[in-house]
Structure formats: C-alpha cells, structure tokens
Design goal:
With 163 residues, the chain is α+β, with helices and mostly antiparallel strands. The protein has two domains: 77 residues, no CATH class; 55 residues, no CATH class. The protein is 36% helix and 22% strand. It is built from four helices and eight strands. The strands form four sheets. Strands 1-2 form a two-stranded antiparallel ribbon. Strands 3-4 form a two-stranded antiparallel ribbon. It has a two-stranded antiparallel ribbon with strand order 5-6. Strand 3 and strand 4 form a beta hairpin.
Length: 163
C-alpha cells in the first residue's frame, strides 16, 4: 500500500490483519533507519536532520494507523476516505456527538440524475456495533429514503459492542 502526502481526499482500504499492520509499520521504520545509516556524519550532525526525518516518517505512520482496525471488524471490508489537511479548511464542518464535536468534510459519493434521484455505488450498509441498533437502522433507512435509494440493503454488524 502506498500513501500520498498530497493534500485532499484519498480512498484507502482498511487493514484488519495484525501481521500486515505490524509489517507495514516495520517496513516504514526500517526505511527510516536505512536512510539514517546511509547519511554521512555531516548530515547526521545537522540539527535539522531529525526534525526533517520525523516530518516525513510521522505522516506515513499516521496514515497507516488511520487504516488499521481490529480483526473483529474484518467482515465490514471497509474503505476510508481520508482527507489530509495542513490547516483548517472553510469546508470543514462539525457535528455533535455526546459532549464532543466531530469534524468532518461533506463528500459527494453518488451521481445526481436529472430527475433529482441519485446513483450510489453501494449495495449494502452494515452498521454497528452500537448501543442503539434500532435507532441506527431507522436513521440509515431514513437517509436512504431521502435520496430514493431503496435498493440499498441495511443490516446489523455481527460484532458485539464490547467483548
């Protein structure tokens, strides 16, 4: 898996396999170590070398971590749209979640037809785990009905909320 450090949204597959997760992190760390070992003493003595190296390694490791998830959720086969931003963007929105504000960007994923219906490349939505499965399903169905997406199936995840 290759990550782009360019700003903007990117679509990345979630990795559920712990061995693959550790392997990707190890490969990134090994590349950083190899880079350090290949540098002449004068470069290593430069006070900006470590901060510059960290500036390259940190976003790579952070990007990987945004795509890692417990194997308990592997049935989801999730993809994530991740938007990298160096500063606050005027398109950034917030929604309440309990006592928190969750930042998000609005993302158009479907095509609007001339008759104001949408084509959405989604066949099924699996939700959960959640404390309110009935409410989650009802909310999803309302959202799908709003956009006349009656063919999309809605189902609960088989993963328990807590082990």
């Amino acid at each position: 898996m290759k990550f782009s450090l360019q700003r903007g949204p990117h679509l990345w597959r979630v990795i559920y396999d712990e061995k693959k997760q550790v392997g990707l992190l190890q490969k990134a760390i090994d590349a950083a170590i190899a880079l350090i070992k290949s540098q002449p003493r004068s470069v290593l003595a430069d006070s900006l070398f470590v901060p510059n190296l960290a500036g390259v390694v940190r976003p790579v490791l952070a990007n990987y971590c945004m795509t890692f998830k417990s194997a308990a959720f592997s049935e989801e086969k999730e993809w994530r749209a991740i938007h990298l931003s160096g500063s606050v963007n005027v398109d950034l929105r917030f929604r309440p979640a309990g006592k928190l504000l969750i930042p998000y960007y609005s993302l158009a994923v479907g095509r609007r037809n001339p008759d104001d219906t949408y084509e959405l490349p989604v066949e099924r939505i699996r939700y959960g785990p959640t404390l309110e499965p009935g409410l989650a399903e009802q909310s999803l169905r309302l959202l799908l009905d709003r956009y006349d997406l009656k063919k999309v199936q809605v189902e609960a995840s088989g993963v328990p909320l807590r082990d």
